[in-house]
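Hi F.,

I've been meaning to write this up properly since the lab meeting, where we talked about keeping a consistent format for the predictions we share between groups. The idea is simple: the sequence comes first, exactly as it goes in, then the structure tokens exactly as they come out, then a line or two of notes. No screenshots and no reformatting. I'm using this chain as the first example so we have something concrete to point to.
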Amino acid sequence: MFASLYLAPRSIQADMYFEHSTDKVREAFDNLEYTFGGQIEVEDMVAEADYSVAEMVADYVFDLTNNPYRQEEREMKYGRGRSVSVGDVIRVGDTMLVCMSCGWEQM
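Output, unedited:
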């Protein structure tokens, strides 16, 4: 299974700290303002109660790119790209999730 990472422009990142709507994200994404950050291979996961596979994968990618204890693994799977942050989009299959200031929201 793969997770595709799309990096938000700085203007979206700043807005997403205070807004809890994905409307600006969708507009910027549709206008090709996002940068493709690459794909990360993830082991198959099984959904849990009230927690989708896409959310589990997004959490995995967020932790991989932000956790300093996983730096070696990160470089092997993702290189030295920037970490997942507010406003970034993770695509798992047909599901697209936006990193919010707290948690994920489906686009």
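Notes:
The mean pLDDT is 87.
The radius of gyration is 13 Å.

If this format works for you, I'll send the rest the same way.

G.
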